[in-house]
Amino acid sequence: MIPMMIKSIRRRPLAAYITLRSKTTATQYVESRARDAVFEKFMDKYKNLLKVIAIQDLILSNPTRTPPSVSLDFLNRLSQKLHLNRGAASFLRRYPHIFHIYYETTVSQPFVRLTDAATQICFEEAEAITATLPAVVDRLVRLLCMSKSKSLPLRAIFKVWKELGLPDDFEDSVISQNPHIFSLHDAHEPHTHILKLVDEFPLCHLRPAVDDWRVTATECGKKKCEAHDTAEMQYCFKHQYPPGMRLSKNFRAKVKEWQSLPYMGPYEELREMKPSKVGMRRLEKRAVAIAHEFLSLTVEKTVEVEKISHFRKWFEIELNMRDLFLDHPGIFYLSTKGKRHTVFLREAYERGRLINPNPVYNVRRKLLDLVVMGRHQFPCNN
């Protein structure tokens, strides 16, 4: 793990190597940075969608009742954890197209179930995931290949199973059904397992998502990364900044210098380097490449910072993930709405929607549409 280099990283702050922003704490910078109105407007809706999905999962995970349902009292006890500031009942009534509250006479208390429309969306999402299982397997293989040991703790994958578009029962439908690709092993820690690629699985050359943009940009002559030749183009990332963000000459110069810096790709084995300033910057660029690829593997090209941080050790990233996203506002956008830090891959979005949507994303947008609809177009007598 390159001990000397790691010690050097810990001694010196990230700002010592990439001074793209002022030397303030990350919290101060989050509050003062240039915000992107499009992403912030989208997050106003998305933060409520995440709460809806959390409640939906609780309802669907209760197989003892038909149709699946949970008591309103149970949700009220979880209100603080679910960030339902005004209580569960108040939140549920905001979305009558998704939740139906009814009184269960046998137990003398109100229960909550999904509406037919919301149930149909859940069914369609499951169908879309099943139809794309080969892509699911490929995403899981790629995720494992970014780890030096070609292995990851299963608990970390559970953190992002929805983001990766994995089936609810992916241990059985994906891992167990592909023993020639995946294997589970006991970990040194209790209550967890390690998912590994089998030794016999052929590891062909994996192409990171950023390479596809580089090829297109080169062919079309759209060298937005400010590269001057093909040699520089191979190390570039697409940059696009929030409208109105002022880019000083010093900032542009530093970004241009960073763009031309060689680095090891997300699927390349990390090689030992001298603990120099250039070496540290190349490690930082490699971390950007891994984060870029990780987001590219997700269904919606977005993930909570806390969740991706669970992979840092396994991807050999010694940098703070939030600082990494803040230092590269042209590649990532970090939102703090909904009492969570959510990072988006900028190039994947346009006007709050994915540029290249996929079947699972399209189904999830239907649920977001019901969230946006709120109480509108709902009969008063229901």
TrEMBL record:
Enumerate the InterPro entries for this protein.
Answer: PORR_domain, PORR_fam
Reading the lineage from the top rank, the first entry is Eukaryota
Positions of the PORR domain = 35-375
Q: Which residues form a coiled coil?
A: none
Q: Name one GO molecular function term.
A: RNA binding
- What are the boundaries of the signal sequence? none
- The molecule here is called PORR domain-containing protein
